[in-house]
Amino acid sequence: MTDSYKHKGQRKKLIKELRAKGISNENVLEAMERVPRHYFMESGFEQFAYKDQAFPIAKGQTISQPYTVAYQTELLDPRKHEKILEIGTGSGYQTAVLLEMGAKVYSIERYRDLYLRAKSILGEMGYQPYLFYGDGYAGQPTFAPYDKILVTAGASEVPSDLLDQLKNGGSMVIPVGDHLGQQMKVVEKSQEGEITEHNRGSFIFVPLIPGKDTNNNKS
Ligand code: SAH
Fold first, then answer.
1. Could you tell me the distance, in angstroms and rounded to a whole number, from the CA of residue 87 to the centre of ligand 1?
2. Residue in 4, 43, 64, 171 annotated catalytic
3. Mean pLDDT by 10-residue block, N- to C-terminus, for the chain (219 residues)?
4. Cβ neighbours of residue 214 closer than 8 Å, sequence gap 6 or more
5. How far is CA 86 from CA 199, 216, 219, in A?
6. How many domains does the chain have?
7. For the CA atoms of the chain, what is the radius of gyration?
8. What is the pTM (predicted TM-score) of this model?
9. Cα of 77 to ligand 1 centre, how many Å?
10. 43 is catalytic
11. Ligand 1 pocket, 85 CB below 6 A?
């Protein structure tokens, strides 16, 4: 794993592009400038790491497009020491961005293979996330409640277990829809526990699939 001057230069350019596309939260942009996205790519795709595109990872999943990562993170607005539950660890890239911003991150992945890879790379990078192999629909009640929840796969609805695990005064960012596309929703829970929702644009994510995958063959 090396982070060369070339990589750093490409990353600077990507950040400029994200700014031009409307991302303005400096904490998000700075964190993304620090995290080497190429560490999270499948071999063969590293050279494209700083293109603003999603790419395939194992198990038919994807590493999200940098703009989507930036947009979701900006909506979530993570602060230092906040407890954040992430659903869909995938490559671990989004997890690293949240960790880089000083959040305490709990992240769940339904494919064991992806969970293991993310654990290994994030560990090598010196991060200390709490990673779980399991079903994100059920959240992680042991460590609840969370200040914020980020879902990085398209859900058919807002899972009630996740709402239950959100603190009063907390918020969740979650794409909701079907396989054709989703609306990015910001779901807020007031201090009194009342729920409000706002739509923040159309996106296309891989689906949030109920249950954890128990077929552990590699692919
Ligand atoms: N943030 C990740 C996005 C990966 S794509 C990245 O940028 O790499 C979404 C991920 O959600 C996939 O890895 C998929 O396996 C995972 N996923 C889908 N359904 C899930 C579920 N029920 N519980 C946990 N993870 C799930």
1. 6
2. 64
3. 95 98 98 98 93 96 97 98 98 98 98 98 98 98 98 98 98 96 98 98 96 75
4. none
5. 19, 22, 24
6. 1
7. 16
8. 0.97
9. 20
10. no
11. no
